[in-house]
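Internal QA ticket QA-208
Title: Verify multi-chain structure generation after dependency bump
Assignee: T.L.

Test input:
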Amino acid sequence: MHLYEFVCGIARSFRRRGLKVGISESIDACQAIGLIADRGLEDIITAIRVTMIKDPSKYHLIEQAIEEAVAGGGSGAGEESGGEEGAEGSDFQTQSMRSTRGAGQDRDSTSTQYVMYSPAESLHKRNLRPVDTSALKTGRRIIKRMRRRLAVLPGRRSHFSKRGEIEFAKTIRYSFKTFGEIMELRKSAKILSRARLVALIDISGSMDTYTDWLVRAMYLFKRFTRRVEVFVFSTRQRRITELLSVTDLEEVRRRLSNEIDLWGSGTRIGYSLKSFIDNYGNMLNRSWIVVIVSDGWDTGEPELLRMSMISLKQRVGRIIWLNPHTDRPNFKPLTIGMLTALPHIDVLAGLSVLENYTSFLAFFGKSIKPLRRGESLVRHKPERAAI
Amino acid sequence: MAKAELLEKLTIDTLIEKLEKHLYVADRSLATALYLAIKMNKPLLIEGEPGCGKTEIAKVLAEILQTDLIRLQCYEGLDASDAIYEWNYPKQLLYIRLLENKGDLKDVESEIFSEKFLLKRPLLAAVLHEGDIPPVLLIDEIDRADEEFEGFLLEFLAEFQVTIPEIGTIKCKKQPIVILTSNRTREIGDGLKRRCLYYFQSYPSREKELKILRLKVKGLDDAVMERIVDFVNIVRQRPEVSKKPGISESLDWANALARLSAKELNRETVMSTLPCIIKTQEDLIRLDIDSILSIIGGKSS
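Actual output:
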C-alpha cells in the first residue's frame, strides 16, 4: 500500500469518529512517516499521533484507524459523515451504507454515510422545542451587568491612580502642558471589569420544566465574557462549550437536541461536580466564577457533594447558585443538596435574574461596582419578599 | 563534530542517547516527536500535567544542540510589546535631553528609533539570532496567555518575521526550533494546535520515574527511592489531593530525603518532608499518610 493511501485511510477513519483532521495534518503525517528511517510500528504510531491527533483522549482510536487503513476499510468512506465519537466506554457499531433519504436528509445524497449508534447515547436525547427569543434582549443586558458585578480581573481600560504604574506615553503627553517639561509622572491602573465563567447546568428530570430557560441561559452564559466554559450534568457531566460557539440560537437548540444525551436523567450533583473538578480542576483559580444552575435535588451522596463544594470553593473566586425555587415567595433551602451546598455559596438567586431586571437588582444589589472578595449575597430567610 | 553536522546527523536513537546523557529520561515517543519537530521545522506543542518535564525538555534540547535557549514565559495580559520588542522610553528621553543640552536636534527622530534604543524581547531575539544552529525558542505555559496573544502567535509561527513600523520587516535567517508548553488550564485554540505537532506528556510509569530518580538523585538507597515512587503514585490517585505531585516534586522530595540521610520512609520522615510534594494546607490535612504507608509497606515486604 502506498504511504499516501495509508495516511488518507487513517485520516478518513479519524474524521468518521469526529476528529478534526484536515489536509494539512495529512501532509504533515506523510512527511513525518517519510522522515522516520526504520519505520517501526511504534515510531509510525507516534508520527501519526503527533501530527494528526491533538486531543489525548482520542489516542485510543489510532490502532483501530491503522487496522482499517491497512485493511482498506477507510477507502471510499465519506469525508464529512459528521460522525461523532460517543460516550466513553460504550461500544459502537458502524454501518456503511449508501445515502438514502432518512435520518440524514439534509446531507448530500451522493456521498457515502456512516451511521453510528449506541444504546446509551440514544436513550435520553431530546428534540427541544424552538426557544422563545423575546427574553433574549433583556438577558443580554443583564448578562452585561452581571459581568461587571462579578468581575475579579482587570480589563483593558485604565483609570488615573496614584498607586498604579507609570505610563510613559501619558506622562509625555501631559508634559506638553508645561512645554515638554515633565512636572508630574502620570500613573494608571486597570479597572476591574472581567471574569472567567464556568456554568454547570443541571438538565436532569427535575429541571424539565425549565428546559426553555436552560437553553437560553446556556446561550447567554457563553456570551458572558471571553473565557467561558459551559457544562451540563445529570448523572454525569459533559462539556458543551463548543456546541454553543455559534451565534444562532436556533442552531444552538438543534445542536443541544442532537448531541446531548443527558436530558431528563437522574441527578448526581456531587458526583458530577467531583468529575468536573477531576477533569478540569487544573484550569480553575481565583479568577473564575462558577455558576451552578440546579434545584438541589440530589440522589447521590451528600458527603460527596459537600467535599466537592469545599474543593470548588477553595479553587475559584465565587460560586453563584441559581435555583428555580428561590423565586418562590416562601422559599426555604430544605433539599439535602441545597442545605449541603449553602455554606459554600456566595450568591443564591432564582432563575428570574436572567429575565427580569428588577429581579436581578434584588438578588445582586443595585451597585454597579464589583462584589468585594468574600462578600456574600445569600439571603435565604423564609420571610424574604417574593420577586 | 561541527554544529550544523550535529543537527544533520540527528536520529531518534541518538537523540534518546543524548537526552539521557543530559540526565533527561525520555520515552521513545517523545524523542520521535522532538526529532520530527526539528526535521519538519514545525513547532512542537507539549501538553501535560505540571511538573512532568515539559519545560526541561526545551532546556536539555538547547544543551544537546549547543545552541541558545530563548524563553518566553507566558502570563495573563502578555502582549506583543512584551513578547517582540519595546522602545526603551527612558533611554530615549535621556538621549533627547542630552541632545537638547548640546543644541543638536537635527536627526533626533531617526536616531531614537534605531536599533540601539530597541529592547529585544524573546520573539525578536529568536528572529535576530545568529549562529550555525537555530536557537530553541521555548514559549512556556501558553495556556496562561490570553487568546489574543495566541492569535498573534498564529501569524508569527507561520511567517517567522517581525514588523517594526519605524524600522521595517525583519525575517529570520534560520527558523528557530519552537517548543510550546501548556498545563491545560484552558483549551488551546484549534488554529494553534493545527500549526504544531502535538505531544501529551502524562505522569511517568513507575519504572520510568524510578529511573529518573536513580539518575538525578545521589546518596539515597534504592529501597527508599522505590517507596518514594510508590508513595507519590498513590498520592496522585487520591481524589482528596487537589494538587497532584509531578516528577519535579518527586525529585525535590528524594533530594530532601537524601540531604537528611534518610534510610527508610517512615511516618516521621514523611511528616517532616511532605511539603515537598503536597503544596496546599488542605491537602496536607486531608491526606491519610498512615494508610499510604501501610500500602507501600506491604508492597515492599
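Spot checks passed. The interface with chain A takes residues 11-12, 28-29, 32-33, 35-36, 39-40, 42, 44-45, 47, 49-50, 76-77, 89-90, 93, 143, 146-147, 183-187, 190, 193-194, 197-200, 202, 239-240, 242, 280, 282 of chain B (CB under 8 Å).
Status: verified.
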